[in-house]
Predict the structure.
Amino acid sequence: MAEPGVRGLISSIDVLARTGISRATMNNYIKMRIIPQPVIKRPDDPSIKAKQIGYFDYSVLAVIDKIKLYKKEGRSMQAIGSLLSLDSRDEDSLSGELIQESTGIDSRMADQDVDAACGQSKLSERKHYGEFEKCREPQDVQFPDSQEIQLTIQELEYPAYLINNKFEIEWINPEAEELIFGRSIRSIKIAEARNIFRLLIDIGGFLEGHQPMIDFHMSMFMQRFPETEIEKLYPSITKSEINRLSSLYDDMADPSSPVAFDNYVKLKGDSETMYQAHCIQFREGILCVYTPAGIMVQGVMELLSKRGRLIRDLLKHRLPTQIHFAVMVADLQDSVRICAELPPEEYFALINQIWKCMEGSFKKYYGTYGKHTGDGMVYYFLRDRDSNYIMNTIYCAMELRESMKKLSNEWKVNKGWFNELYLNIGINEGEEFFGMIPAAPSIEFTALGDSVNYAGRLSDFARCGSVWTTKNLINRLNEDERKKFGYGIRNKQQDREVIIENVFSRVMDLTPQDSPKAGKFMDIATLPITEVLNLL
């Protein structure tokens, strides 16, 4: 790292203000070695609340002006990097004469490609929740001494972890456990207990020396959520913690506030080294990686640039988590007979139509496709701060039933047959371990335990497009929610059917003992269930 020149130092805050460039662009220039790494130290201005910020030699302003001039001339960032690289000039004389441009420079790379290069660590500037940040692979940016290093996330030797959109850790490596938290995080099975703010506060997050870690994550939180969501961060959050975090949120949100944050921190297990925090955003969450400041780490930037490969690798190693969820298992009644009756091309056309009419409903109600060892298609509805996962499951099931009725009528008219198409549905709620199963070419969600098995058995039990659920699921709903749909048991009395509302029955009591199906449902014989009849 270059020492300050005779003309003194200028803070990164002032550099951004005077040049008009973004922090992301500044980081890119550093990584391209157009400008040197900053000196990290306490702010000279006492009004700045950040514990550590970066300082540059004043000559960096002249270099940035030169970059702007070259851009106006239409030069590519690769050409500019070749002209202004620190490898081609003395770091201590940045304002001196620049080398002359050579001929034959490849100008394939536009400057916007460098601003989006994944080798640079930046927070997404998008405000829309769940959007992917576009990121091009910086194929023309050559890092010093870099070679073709194909790191995987499991081989990363620097602290790293993935937090989901609720700021709960879903993957973490041993280095992060040791250097950041000083404890095992992977042994924590409840997702809410792995909330990053909760963990950081537990290790002294508001104390001097730890505050920058809180700042770093709050800067990401405020890009996604309003301040009112702070009180919902985790169940055990105290009023004192809410007030401290809200105060920090206000300081960062106020454009007139002098608060600034540089992504440089010290870690609990290595107080002597300054680390630079890199982060990359996905739809599934945010990956944070910490590397020693001032060191161009081979392979790390290449790893971060491969977004598709990176997220697949992360999901394969996602921590199994015990969470609440609802599950739906749906199966086409008499699918074997229908397959035998239809020509192959018509059967596949039917299945594709069924999937097409179902897909919209699953997306509408936040269903996630999952893997299950039994028959039928399985969708999970995860508990989430923005949706009622149990009611979403019920609404989705009833919508699917109506969609299948319409599709059945269309096929009867077009095909000229009298077969009815029924989608038999079983739904249940539970708290189980939820994780990922690698399955080429994709990754599938799966939950282990009786909750999913019961839903699958109820799908087998259902007939003629009925929707069955457990007493357990109904008991999870409040009184107002139960009033939104009808449920009960159908009884036959002589030659008519009578519906007894708001009651349950054991499976064994709904299946005659002399029925061939009695033995099939012995494993759930005592399970209290009810039929979801209609929406009110």
In short: The longest helix spans residues 389-415. The chain has three domains: 1-115, 118-319, 324-535.
